[in-house]
Write a structure and sequence with these properties.
The protein has 489 residues and is of the alpha+beta class. 39% of the residues lie in helices and 21% in strands. It has two domains: 233 residues, ATPase, nucleotide binding domain (Nucleotidyltransferase, domain 5); 241 residues, Nucleotidyltransferase, domain 5 (2-Layer Sandwich), CATH 3.30.420.40.
Length: 489
């Protein structure tokens, strides 16, 4: 038997086919139309783009691997979190989806917390513009005619599930990112829903990520040559799916993701919120498990920004920084180009370079950018520790993990080794496929979601520890000083 993982991203969809032993049999990707930004701070996308990209990716996989596709028994879904898809009673899309990186609802977050003082206690999370509930609060105030027609609110992957199966179901990990879930109880909260003028009737049913959550429509199974009765798993939000893909489901296991945004993810055996530090405390994709995340909004995107400014490619900047690095320079970078989540929860924060001189060049600026992102991860680690979290095995994933200097800086700032997996795909599509396997075969997630072979381990550089700790103290002092100056200005 075979199992299909579908990872729905804002830039495209990836479909991955595995066998019972987790071996990759084939994969296909399809690009979707990029998000649009009709106003500063807004980010929207047409949900139909995800559906058409899903069809294109699976069509390609079916054409290339017809024998393996015929044996598909389970499908798992992964998707970008927090997006708001508004549907009417006939399940027609009412407006473009408001995405995770949309910041329009900052004022609504404050309103929600004022209207329900116990919000943080129930949700275990701060109201942030990226979450789904504040987006609906904004729609209610600014688009009342749309809000009045809204009969169902889905997250991105749940919308794709609806098209695949006809059923409105969401898994616990993605639901936890809406700000409507009582995360400790793994159930919708009537009080949180009421703050946005909604009720349980507007929500999809809930399922664990490794449990059955719908079946593939017969017409689609025939389109793709699938001969089995295909179960669709609950699936996971993208970060929880990535954790399933690399086997980070046991307490203390986690990863550092150096992608466009950055994530410090740790699996927990119980709910461990720290709203004071803007920690994301969510349900994991497997039963009786939770996880915490420190999230930074501009990780490799910071180096991408520097690439645009200097006209040099990211790879060139990274190589130049690596070759010239002899320890921290004068330049300090605050990576708040798109605001920040952990630990500041400030959508209006902005990035800064401090300590520039005539000697500053692209190589030193690139090194400062890498170190600034590494210090942002150190901030995340600090507030996770404040929540009582003890991190064990920590893997490094994402495009930025190819940089030896970047990993050395992060390992030193976190004061713990980083394990780098061998070649392979350990992302959301693999995690989704593994969840599909669990749902179809009633398999134990602990037996299915094993960790990959480790290619190397990056140890903290003890020779740099003292200098980087001193630098981190300056970094922490700069944010409030710059924010005060910006506010006064």
């Amino acid at each position: 038997m075979t199992y299909l993982g579908i990872d729905i991203g804002t830039s495209g969809v990836k479909a991955l086919l595995i066998d019972r032993n987790g071996r990759t049999l084939g994969e296909a990707t399809a690009r979707s139309v990029e998000p649009v930004r009709p106003h500063p701070g807004w980010s929207e996308q047409n949900p139909e783009d995800w559906w058409h990209a899903t069809l294109e990716a699976i069509d390609a996989l079916s054409k290339a691997h017809p024998t393996a596709m015929a044996k598909v028994r389970g499908i798992g879904l992964s998707g970008h979190m927090h997006g708001a898809v508004l549907l009417d009673k006939a399940h027609r899309v009412l407006r473009p989806a408001i995405l995770w990186n949309d910041g329009r609802s900052a004022d609504d977050c404050a309103m929600m917390e004022a209207e329900l003082p116990s919000l943080r206690e129930i949700a275990g999370n701060i109201a942030m513009p990226g979450f789904t509930a504040p987006k609906l609060h904004w729609v209610r105030r600014n688009e009342p005619e749309i809000f009045a027609q809204t009969a169902l609110v889905l997250l991105p992957k749940a919308y794709v599930r609806l098209r695949l199966s006809g059923e409105a179901i969401e898994d616990m990990s993605d639901a936890a990112g809406t700000l409507w879930l009582d995360v400790a109880k793994r159930d919708w909260s009537d009080a949180l829903l009421a703050v946005t003028g909604l009720a349980r009737a507007h929500m999809p049913a809930l399922a664990e990520g490794s449990a059955p959550a719908g079946r593939l429509r017969r017409a689609l199974a025939e389109r793709w040559g699938m001969t089995e009765d295909v179960v669709i798993a609950g699936g996971a939000g993208d970060n929880a799916a990535a954790a399933c893909g690399i086997g980070a489901i046991r307490p203390g296991d986690g990863f550092v993701s150096l992608g466009t945004s950055g994530v410090l993810f740790v699996s927990n055996d119980r709910f461990r919120p720290n709203t004071a530090g803007a920690v994301h405390a969510f349900c994991h994709a497997v039963p009786n498990t939770w996880h915490q995340m420190g999230v930074i909004l501009s990780a490799t995107d910071s180096l991408n920004w520097l690439s645009k400014v200097t006209g040099q490619k990211q790879a060139e900047l990274s190589a130049a920084a690596e070759a010239a690095y002899r320890g921290p320079g004068e330049e300090i970078f605050l990576p708040y180009l798109s605001g920040e989540r952990t630990p500041h929860n400030n959508a209006r924060a902005r990035g800064s370079f401090v300590g520039l001189s005539h000697l500053s060049d692209p190589a030193s600026l690139a090194a400062a950018v890498m170190d600034g992102v590494a210090m942002a991860f150190r901030d995340c680690n600090r507030v996770l520790a404040d929540a009582g979290t003890d991190i064990g095995t920590l893997l490094a994933v994402g495009g930025g993990s190819k940089s030896a200097l970047w990993l050395r800086l992060i390992a030193t700032h976190l004061d713990r080794p980083l394990s780098v997996p061998g070649d392979g795909d350990f992302g959301g599509a693999l995690g989704a496929a593994r969840l599909g396997l669990c749902a179809a075969e009633h398999a134990d997630p602990a037996a299915v979601m094993t960790m990959p072979t480790i290619a190397r381990v990056v140890e903290p550089d003890r020779a740099l520890s003292a200098a980087l700790t001193e630098r981190y103290a300056r970094y922490r002092a700069l944010y409030p000083a710059i924010e005060t100056a910006r506010t006064l200005g």
